[in-house]
């Protein structure tokens, strides 16, 4: 390829970058293939009961469309004055994709706050497609690392798979791995358009900028 007025130096550097991008694409697929080969794990600790807009619902009842459930732990605990801006930024985008996701798998968003408080935040953001659940009355967050022993909230994503029983399949454990210098965990970045878009820019993500609830 060639673009108007590009220099030989640019084309040479861009061609080298292209090869790196090809290798990255291969590595992303290789990691995804390795993830898909994870052996079966034990069944979930219990058939948790969550609060939803339609009333109480069990974990096993959330697998309505196929045998897989993706559950994101949204950092919005009852002691938090406001919802997490980072989680909110990601969910702003995910709400727009939720209808597409539903064609392939089940997706739920779980927070520890009472359901009315979660729904109030959702209305303020204009969310209309996400399936929102409250874990206020169960131990799901604590059992699946969405909560620390002192009640702090953690933004982990868990995947469950149903065969004879509902079993835990995968979690974004990169959240708990040691960060690289100048980076955050990036454990859910593949589903977060904001950071992936900024990575295309000369300025990149920046070191000190983070999303806010209002601007």
Structural features:
215 residues, alpha/beta, 5 helices, 31% helix, globular
Order of secondary-structure elements: HEEEHEHEHEEH
Q: Percent range for helical residues?
A: 25-40%
Structural class: alpha/beta
Beta-strand fraction estimate: 15-25%
What is the end-to-end distance?
39 Å
Strand element count: 7
Question: Largest sheet at a glance?
Answer: 5 strands, mixed
Unreliable runs: none
Report mean pLDDT, rounded to a whole number: 96
Question: Helical stretch count?
Answer: 5
C-alpha geometry:
globular
Which strands sit side by side, in order, in the main sheet?
Answer: 5-4-3-6-7
Question: Whole-number radius of gyration?
Answer: 20 Å
Give an overview in words.
With 215 residues, the chain is α/β, with parallel strands linked by helices. Helices cover 31% and strands 16% of the residues. The protein contains five helices and seven strands. The chain has a five-stranded mixed sheet. The chain has a two-stranded antiparallel ribbon with strand order 1-2. Helix 3 links the parallel strand 4 and strand 5. The radius of gyration is 20 Å and the shape is globular. The chain starts with 7 loop residues before the first helix and ends in a 17-residue tail after the last helix. The model has no long low-confidence stretch (mean pLDDT 96).
